[in-house]
TrEMBL record:
GO terms classed as biological process: DNA transposition
UniProt-recorded name of the protein: Transposase IS4 family protein
InterPro entries tied to this protein: IS1634_transpos (IPR047654), RNaseH-like_sf (IPR012337), Transposase_11 (IPR002559)
Signal peptide bounds: none
Organism: Cyclobacterium marinum (strain ATCC 25205 / DSM 745 / LMG 13164 / NCIMB 1802)
PANTHER family according to UniProt: PTHR34614, TRANSPOSASE IS4-LIKE DOMAIN-CONTAINING PROTEIN
Domain Transposase IS4-like: 174-443
GO MF terms held by the record: DNA binding; transposase activity
């Protein structure tokens, strides 16, 4: 504010207090007018005193506003600050897939979201709900809930998931990827479901179950099933495919699976049921006739060849990168064997075809030695990879299709690390089944989030998006005038706003 003299039409001057607002001068107060210079000086002194008074009031008022705001904020308790990011973002994705059609209360949704945000035991889940959602629920309530829903949910969940991702894939699923993994338990006890068996995780002393997962292109989940821990994974494929085909009228997609499913009975079963397939081929384990046929081929990089195997096509490819890797692994395996032989840690029971033990031999019926000739002969397979198929795809198409099997490997990696489907702490079979169902839905939500971020060309990953939701809060405040409560979301960061804009507009 400042003092101004303004000439009047009569020739006198008015003394005014002026406030500049933008480019406009506004009159705050006119102190008076006069033609006498001494009177005008007096009016100007009064004007300056008035400015001091007005500015002092503004300072006091600003201080009062600060104190009022501070006082109001001090009344907000911790339980009036709520984490809303996971519900806002992940809950929206959950509903966009269609899981709200399951038609139950919010607890299932909260268990799915907590599995994505704070994966762990159910004790960790109730800690998350209490600390961030202000919801008190006992672990026994969750257990009873899991016992109640275990039967009906799998079918509904698979139906909704399949329908959604079938639409995402354009209404037709021409290729499916199948694989199986082991999930171990933190207990020594076995039952009808949990069995000690061969473990891909090296947890041979722990009871386990086997989880079969079927995904489409891009790793989109289509279905799952749970098997006893000691079942041979090759026995699971056909029953699983038949069940999916029957439920969803999927037709006969091309089945792509790992070499672990490559048994003669399995291959014949796929053929008998009308399936086309691409399976990883164990060429080092083939019979002599096929091995000789392979060795007679001239196979260059990017120029795969093929041989006939029982009416099916065995595609053989060569890669220099794979050759170096195979050679390195053979040498490391040999070094470990040499160390064990030197230390006398091997006996005749160690001579088998497991891994690099195939390089062992028995000398003088008592001494275990290394068969270096067999080791050197094995070098001719370095860099070669086999693919068995009954499709009419050209060799490069077969190799490309099998190469997409990494999608299901990524699915298991996400499930085991980000969602932490294992280790499993439950011991009752129905709770185990519900736990796997929750993890399957969590994976579906994660993949849909990943897809939406890609569509919207968002730079960060789905993992980063989940992290961003963990710091999106709202506060509940009391409005003294209306004597009501309202919730106010805290201002998001630029990254959080980008995430909100990408997901909430679907």
């Amino acid at each position: 504010m400042f003092v101004r003299r303004k000439r009047n039409a009569s020739g006198s001057f008015s003394v005014q207090i002026i406030r500049k607002v933008g480019r406009i001068n506004k009159v705050v107060k006119t102190l008076g007018s006069s033609s006498d210079e001494r009177e005008l000086d007096t009016l100007e002194r009064q004007a300056r005193l008035e400015i001091d008074r007005l500015q002092g009031q503004a300072t006091i008022f600003s201080r009062e506003k600060d104190e009022s705001l501070t006082s109001m904020l001090s009344t907000i308790s911790n339980n009036e600050i709520e984490l809303v990011g996971p519900d806002k973002i992940l809950g929206h994705v959950y509903e966009s897939i269609g899981y709200e059609r399951i038609g139950i209360d919010e607890l299932f949704k909260e268990l799915v979201i907590s599995r994505l945000v704070y994966p762990g035991s159910k004790l960790k889940t109730i800690d998350y709900l209490a600390r961030y959602k202000n919801k008190e629920i006992s672990v026994y309530s969750i257990y009873r809930y899991m016992d109640k829903i275990h039967k009906e949910f799998k079918e509904k969940v698979e139906e909704i998931t399949f329908e959604h991702f079938k639409d995402v894939l354009g209404g037709r699923i021409g290729v499916v990827f199948y694989d199986m993994t082991t999930l171990y338990f933190e207990t020594p006890d076995e039952d009808d479901l949990r069995k000690i068996g061969y473990s891909k995780d090296g947890k041979h002393q722990h009871p386990q179950i086997k989880l079969g997962l079927l995904v489409g292109p891009e790793g989109y989940p289509l279905g799952y099933d749970i098997f006893e821990g000691n079942i041979y994974e090759g026995y699971t494929l056909i029953p699983f495919l038949e069940s999916i085909e029957k439920k969803f009228l999927i037709g006969k997609p091309i089945v792509i699976a790992d070499a672990g499913l490559l048994s003669n009975s399995n291959i014949q079963a796929l053929i008998d049921h009308g399936y086309k397939f691409v399976l990883g081929g164990k060429i080092r384990n083939e019979n002599r006739e096929i091995k000789e046929a392979i060795q007679q081929l001239e196979i260059a990089e990017d120029k795969p060849r093929e041989v006939n195997k029982g009416g099916n096509r065995l595609i053989i490819s060569f890669s220099k990168k794979r050759q170096k890797k195979d050679e390195y692994n053979r040498k490391k395996g040999l070094e470990k064997l040499e160390k064990k032989v030197k230390n006398g840690k091997l006996d005749k029971n160690s001579i088998n075809n497991r891994g690099y033990n195939k390089y062992l031999k028995l000398e003088s019926e008592v001494k275990v030695a290394i068969d270096y000739r067999k080791y050197e002969m094995d070098a001719k397979w370095d860099g070669l990879k086999g693919y068995l198929t009954n499709t009419d795809m050209n060799p490069n198409e077969v190799i490309g299709a099998y190469g997409d099997l990494w999608q299901i490997e990524k699915a298991f990696r996400i499930s085991k690390t980000d969602i932490r489907v294992r280790p499993i702490y439950h011991r009752i079979p129905k709770r185990i089944r519900t736990h796997i169902c929750i993890c399957f839905v969590s994976y579906a939500v994660f993949k849909e989030l990943e897809r939406l971020l890609k569509i919207k060309k968002v730079a960060f990953s789905a993992n980063r998006a989940v992290e961003l939701t963990k710091n999106m809060y709202q506060i509940r405040v009391f409005l003294p005038e209306s004597k009501t409560y309202t919730t106010v979301p805290l201002k998001p960061t630029d990254e959080q706003q980008e995430l909100i804009s990408a997901i909430m507009k679907i």
